[in-house]
């Protein structure tokens, strides 16, 4: 892999109260690839993802140490500007959570927050990113309707468009298809593969098959520890750790 | 065998009985409002017959000895005091609830919540006394001179301030619950695109919580309308239409509480007081219906 790393994690430790959730994690996430973080539930996948955009800050009683370097900036630095960091990363949650406003306003929300007021520019942004999330054709006639009229799958693509609209470099997905029907999941996966030429994509998933289908790079966590990471082909066909081998075979869950 | 067969029957009978009994109680409770309206109406018929309704409602002449009962000063008194209380209470309560829900660490929230709830349990006489000892002199010596007017301190403003503090706990408590019920993920969706916490509160949390916030305010206002004791002690009780918030006023509940049982030798007076109670009841009923309609619309627009 000659690819440069987009996110580099060095000695990351996360405690919730007395619980040691992430133990001395060091890893790197390649630029413009899809990286899958896998592992059984409760292993710290989501926590790792949320430490990338510091949403972890809002958890009660959390302590974080180590470094997370994004474009050579340590985002865990107390002086780092949180809104600026988050803007660099679009986030997709397990279930779609559209904001309580119209479809148009959902996509325009981020740009407006960052000071874009010009109606024509907003129109253009909304169309561009709804198209990127392959939702434009389905909603172009009803942009002013509340986002809650859309189906779950459409809502998730709307959330993707909302995240893309602030022009991030990274897309974070926390099991982004787990609440969707197979067809909608497939559309999201397809959109991801289309997007990876422009974005670094990191998804958390507990579905091994999804990781096989999508990932270029895999990170395997178990009980808060990093067990193995590497290019997807090597990981699935030639795992180095016995634990990885067992997990892939489905012996650990 | 026999026992087994008997047992289910008695169980079902009990169930049936309990269901019917509770239905009866529910009907009775629901009827109570209607019964009260009917009772008050019957009692106020003499004064209603003595002069036209429009005059009763909109005349400013309150001269019981001449048989003139104009309720306009009292209705305005009620509306003014309630209005001032709501104007003071709503912004303060919302900001407090927002702080507790969105900014305060869990430990602070768990400490402050019961303290605010205790406020709700303080007897209204205590608020009244506090108003007389603190708020009234403050208005007399500081607020009124500042605006270069004279006021005894016993005024709408005093009533409004005392009343506002009395409705704090209801509004804060309900608003806080409503804010906490907004899913964390909706906040995260907003934070994740780089919004600050305040932007998130303004554009997302408040919007999502709007119907609940409206309900919290409605509850507060409903309580404010009827609150009698504390207001009566600081509001001055002068039967004139107030011109500004430093004027005294005479809200409907105070009118009833001050005079019932004392001035009943005057003809029609007791009937007039019953009419006052009826008006108060109808105002609250009307307000409830109106706010329900508004709430339903708000909820539809938010979906």
Textual characterization of the structure:
The complex is a heterodimer of chains A (253) and B (303). With 253 residues, chain A is an alpha/beta fold. Helices cover 36% and strands 26% of the residues of chain A. Chain A has helices spanning 45-52, 82-87, 103-113, 119-132, 136-139, 152-164, 182-195, 208-214, 232-237, 242-249; strands at 5-16, 19-30, 34-38, 62-70, 73-74, 89-92, 170-174, 200-204, 217-222, 225-231. In chain A, helix 3 (103-113) packs across helix 4 (119-132), helix 3 runs parallel beside helix 6 and helix 4 (119-132) packs across helix 6 (152-164). Chain B has 303 residues and is mainly α. Chain B has 2 domains: 2-50; 62-302, MetI-like (MetI-like fold, Orthogonal Bundle). Chain B has a two-stranded antiparallel sheet with strand order 1-2. The A-B interface holds A 53, 55, 58, 60, 83-84, 86-87, 89-91, 93, 95, 97-101, 109-110, 113-114, 146, 148, 159, 162-163, 165-166 and B 105-106, 183-196, 199, 203-204, 207-208, 302-303.
């Amino acid at each position: 892999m000659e690819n440069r790393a987009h996110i580099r994690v060095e000695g990351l430790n996360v405690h919730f109260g007395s619980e040691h959730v992430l133990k001395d994690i060091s890893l790197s996430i390649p630029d413009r690839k899809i990286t899958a973080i896998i592992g059984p539930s409760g292993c710290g996948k989501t926590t790792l993802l949320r430490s990338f955009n510091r949403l972890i800050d809002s958890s009660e009683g959390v302590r974080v140490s180590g470094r997370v370097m994004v474009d050579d900036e340590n985002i865990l630095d107390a002086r780092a500007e949180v809104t600026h960091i988050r803007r660099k990363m679009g986030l997709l949650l397990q279930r779609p959570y559209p904001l309580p406003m119209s479809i148009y306003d959902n996509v325009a929300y981020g740009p407006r927050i960052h000071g874009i007021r010009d109606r024509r520019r907003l129109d253009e942004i909304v169309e561009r990113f709804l198209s990127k999330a392959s939702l434009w054709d389905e909603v172009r006639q009803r942009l002013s309707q509340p986002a809650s009229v859309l189906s779950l799958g459409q809502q998730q693509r709307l959330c993707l468009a909302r995240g893309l609209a602030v022009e991030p470099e990274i897309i974070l997905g926390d099991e982004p298809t787990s609440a969707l029907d197979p067809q909608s999941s497939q559309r999201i996966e397809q959109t991801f593969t289309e997007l990876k030429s422009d974005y670094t994509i990191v998804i958390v998933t507990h579905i091994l098959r999804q990781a096989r289908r999508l990932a270029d790079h895999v990170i395997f966590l178990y009980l808060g520890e990093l067990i193995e990471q590497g290019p997807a082909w090597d990981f699935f066909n030639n795992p180095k750790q016995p634990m990885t081998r067992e997990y892939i075979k489905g012996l650990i869950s | 065998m026999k026992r087994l067969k008997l047992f289910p029957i008695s169980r079902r009978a009990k169930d049936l009985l309990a269901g019917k009994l509770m239905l009866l109680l529910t009907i009775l409770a629901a009827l109570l409002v209607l019964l009260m309206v009917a009772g008050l109406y019957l009692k106020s018929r003499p004064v209603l017959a003595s002069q036209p309704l429009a005059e009763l409602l909109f005349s400013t002449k309150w001269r019981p000895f001449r048989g003139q009962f104009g309720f306009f000063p009292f209705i305005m008194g009620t509306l003014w005091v309630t209005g001032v209380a709501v104007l003071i209470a709503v912004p303060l309560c919302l900001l407090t609830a927002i702080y507790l829900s969105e900014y305060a660490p869990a430990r602070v929230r768990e400490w402050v919540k019961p303290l605010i709830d205790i406020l709700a349990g303080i007897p209204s006489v205590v608020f009244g006394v506090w108003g007389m000892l603190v708020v009234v002199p403050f208005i007399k010596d500081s607020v009124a001179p500042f605006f270069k007017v004279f006021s005894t301190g016993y005024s709408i403003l005093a009533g409004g301030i005392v009343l506002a503090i009395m409705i704090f706990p209801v509004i804060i408590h309900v608003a806080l619950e409503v804010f906490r019920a907004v899913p964390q993920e909706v906040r995260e969706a907003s934070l994740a695109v780089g919004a600050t916490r305040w932007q998130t509160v303004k554009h997302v949390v408040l919007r999502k919580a709007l119907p609940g916030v409206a309900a919290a305010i409605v509850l507060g206002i409903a309580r404010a309308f009827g609150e009698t004791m504390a207001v009566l002690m600081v509001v001055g009780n002068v039967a004139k239409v107030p011109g500004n918030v430093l004027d005294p006023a005479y809200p409907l509940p105070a009118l009833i509480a001050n005079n019932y049982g004392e001035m009943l030798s005057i003809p029609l007076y007791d009937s007039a007081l019953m009419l006052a109670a009826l008006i108060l009841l109808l105002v609250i009923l009307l307000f409830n219906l109106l706010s329900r309609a508004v709430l339903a619309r708000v909820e539809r627009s938010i979906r």
